[in-house]
Amino acid sequence: MLDFTGRVAIVTGAGHGLGRQYALDLGRRGARVVVDDVATAVDGTAGGENPADAVAAEIRAAGGEAVAEHSSVADPAGGEAIVDRALTEFGRLDILVNNAGIARTNEFGGVRYDDVLASLRVHLLGAFHLLLPAWKRFQAQGEGVVVNTTSAVGMFGQRRSSVYAAGKMGVVGLTRVLASEGAEHGIRVNAIAPVARSRMAGEVYGRLDPKLDPAFVSAVVLALAHPSSTVTGEVVSAGGGRMSRLFSAAAPGFFTPGLDDETAAAHLGEVCAEESVAAVPGCAMDEIDLIRACYPDLADYRMAPR
């Protein structure tokens, strides 16, 4: 069992499902936990009792340390309040798990702008609202760990999920950039793409559902969050006992120094059907370097990360 004694963790959306599992598991392993959640339904509308109190109480009953926080990740003030709570109660912050989410699915023709704003405020802007104040703390102390939450829906697409997918793919880009910038400050940033039975998933997984214990995902989140890990900048899929790396790749493509519109049209179909992998770029400049590599006179001029 991994030991988190002395570490302080924030888990957002920790009142139900995956977030609850993360908070309980961190608490059992010695972390002091800020359990953040708000009293809302799955779609983000207000209603019911706040579940954060019960989760924090469960951690304390098992001998751990935890406090409940009821601020929303959907606005900057809420993000500041959550980070401030960790510093006020426990004097430090080591781990940030951005887990909060809502579900508003619809064919794109039925999407309302209110749905766009509500979803992005939680999934993408919500990460920023926590990260901006937490990042300053991590830089000052020379270490910190972030586990963001993305989804296969963002990486690969899914009908009725345009807004959700846009936010979750935004999280991937954010994760990659922060991992690069954070390395010199001792900050690691990764993203988890979870597959688990939960209130939000509902009946999506059908007969697979009994295999998708949230504990399987939590095991990977804890591995990413533990100080023994050196992994950063990755998207890890986790569910049902399986974990794997998700990544964007570049195919070999088609090259001619005289590319024009007719040539592009003639070869575009085959280029877009290509599934072999030429490279897994570590950053945007790595992908651009594949163009440079087509020119023999630039063999000594590799594109460098910026």
TrEMBL record:
Listed InterPro entries: NAD(P)-bd_dom_sf, Peroxisomal_Beta-Oxidation, Sc_DH/Rdtase_CS, SDR_fam
Domain of life where this protein originates: Bacteria
Record-annotated membrane-spanning stretches: none
GO molecular function terms noted in the UniProt entry: oxidoreductase activity
Keyword annotations of the record: Oxidoreductase
Residues of the signal peptide: none
The family this protein is said to belong to: Belongs to the short-chain dehydrogenases/reductases (SDR) family.
Protein name (Swiss-Prot/TrEMBL): SDR family NAD(P)-dependent oxidoreductase
